[in-house]
């Protein structure tokens, strides 16, 4: 494949992590960058030798050379910038979550269909090496029949800027919803969630969200499976953890309790003391073009001096960044839906939004819209 996609990156904090990946991908041209702060824009542009630079997002979208935008702006801007890009005839990759309301998720799915352009939510966990390892076990039949899925995302967000303080835990839930839905490509049908504990009053009043922890059950459509996910952001003592666990009839996979330790495989029908064993999770760089394989093992943006906090706390996001970029670019080249596509991204994002609504209603069952029907 000799075709190249002209990519523009919007937001150069976490977003700059992806610049060298696109620069070295054989089918991408790292064409333009966009940042409101001109000094930051020029600093990054000079560092990576990118000539086309915009402080205005609208000016970027008016550039006919831009094929696709990769949005890494603050969460409140995701929906507006995505809709503008799709309606301007650009393909869109966007960091999580897709939007902050179910209504905006619906609009993005509709806009993707109307524009004929591709949308991909850049959910790191479904391209992390641990998820790829479990996916491989599943596809080889080693798990047997999958019986239950579970995930968590716990993080201390004290000191994070802007919109983070007091955020309802489930409003940023895709890191745990994505893997439980994504392994078997299931569609969440309805959700029930409970809040537990309370955060400090100064944080709680920002979003009128008192809960320290929110825990939800998800029922999947046309499946006998359900999943359990839980989230915490403030006032809970826990090392950073994005966990994903799957229980099968033959084998089960459990995430380590402590960062840096190996996960555990449980194998049925063995002597009790042999059922559980620790396993090393392999890297999956061989799935990638040779030019970007080395990015699974390290960060790329100011690695030593100023690594982005989400990358440091997130354990490097499981080597997912080059996989995400590769999936987006190859989906465009091959004219196919990326994973996750617009309706899947809307489904995963809305699980969290509606889970919080359920928690405020004492655990009420709340149905999700049928995003697949809209796509």
TrEMBL record:
Pfam families: GFO_IDH_MocA. InterPro entries: Gfo/Idh/MocA-like_OxRdtase_N, Gfo/Idh/MocA_Oxidoreductase, NAD(P)-bd_dom_sf. One of its GO terms (molecular function) is nucleotide binding. Residues 5-121 form the Gfo/Idh/MocA-like oxidoreductase N-terminal domain. PANTHER family: D-GLUCOSIDE 3-DEHYDROGENASE, UDP-N-ACETYL-2-AMINO-2-DEOXY-D-GLUCURONATE OXIDASE. This is Gfo/Idh/MocA family oxidoreductase. It comes from Dyadobacter fanqingshengii.
């Amino acid at each position: 494949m000799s075709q190249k996609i002209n990519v523009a990156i919007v937001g150069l904090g976490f977003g700059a992590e992806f610049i060298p990946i696109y620069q070295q991908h054989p089918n991408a041209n790292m064409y333009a960058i966009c940042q409101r702060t001109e000094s930051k824009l020029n600093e990054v542009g000079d560092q990576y030798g990118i000539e086309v630079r915009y402080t205005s997002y609208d000016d970027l979208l008016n550039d006919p050379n831009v094929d696709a935008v990769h949005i890494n702006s603050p969460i409140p801007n995701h929906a507006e910038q995505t809709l503008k890009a799709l309606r301007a005839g650009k393909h869109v990759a966007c960091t999580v979550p897709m939007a902050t309301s179910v209504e905006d998720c619906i609009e993005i799915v509709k806009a993707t269909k109307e524009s004929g352009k591709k949308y991909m939510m850049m959910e790191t966990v479904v391209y992390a090496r641990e998820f790829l390892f479990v996916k491989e076990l599943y596809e080889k039949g080693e798990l047997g029949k999958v019986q239950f899925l579970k995930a968590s995302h716990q993080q201390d967000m004290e000191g994070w800027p802007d919109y983070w303080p007091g955020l309802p835990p489930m409003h940023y839930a895709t890191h745990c919803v994505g893997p439980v839905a994504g392994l078997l490509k299931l569609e969440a049908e309805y959700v029930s969630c409970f809040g537990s504990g309370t955060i400090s009053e100064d944080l709680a009043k920002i979003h009128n969200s008192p809960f320290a922890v929110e825990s939800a059950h998800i029922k999947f459509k046309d499946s006998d499976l359900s999943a359990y996910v839980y989230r915490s952001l403030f006032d809970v003592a826990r090392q950073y953890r994005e966990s994903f666990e799957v229980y099968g009839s033959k084998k089960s996979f459990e995430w380590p309790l402590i960062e840096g330790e190996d996960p555990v495989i449980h194998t049925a029908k063995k002597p009790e003391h042999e059922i559980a064993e620790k396993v090393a999770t392999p890297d999956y760089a061989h799935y990638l073009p040779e030019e970007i394989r080395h990015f699974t093992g390290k960060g790329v943006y100011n690695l030593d001096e100023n690594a982005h906090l989400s990358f440091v706390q997130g354990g490097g996001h499981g080597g997912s960044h080059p996989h995400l970029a590769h999936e987006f670019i190859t989906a465009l080249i091959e004219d196919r839906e990326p994973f996750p596509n617009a309706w899947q991204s809307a489904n995963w994002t809305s699980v969290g939004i509606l889970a919080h609504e359920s928690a405020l209603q004492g655990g009420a069952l709340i149905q999700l819209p049928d995003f697949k029907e809209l796509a």
